[in-house]
Request: fold
Amino acid sequence: MKWPKIRELGEALRSLFSAPYTSKFPKKASLPPPRFRGTIVFNEEKCIGCGACVEVCPAKARTLEDDLEKGVRHVVYLKDMCIYCGQCVTYCTTKEGIRHTIDYDLSYVDKEPFRDEIEKELVFCERCGEVITTREHLTWIARRTGELAYANPTLILARQQELSTIEMGSDKGDAEPYRSDHQRLLCPNCRRLVVLNEIWGY
Reply:
């Protein structure tokens, strides 16, 4: 038992004359490693408002709030509920819509700074008025699928609107679906009714 006690005494003397290991936070913030999962921020140009991050968030720290009167979707991120698991970043549709930062200081005196949100324009069905998705979501899919977008009129019409080559109406009514409705922005249910009416005369 003689040598271990001498070793412990040496460690005690070395720690007595060495600097403390603890950081000087908050006077001087320590720099975390590059892959640190800190506060998450939006990339407004790359986010398409699809809601994939909302679906995979286990802490319910992300929500979609559709303002039907203004025709916009609010993609909301609540920092105080986030557990920083990184699922939203991993499963982002564009892979660039949101990202982690190395910021970990979330000391605020009120709740307002904990809420971060962006707005995206909504697209409505021209027959029933239901929300389809955001305009950026449709155009992103159209660009991503390339020439295959011509198999879906809603995608190609959204793309043509982005290019300002057409102008779409927004008339809604209870009239029976007709073949001309193919060239309208429709939700999946109205698109199905149009196809069934053309084939079977429903």
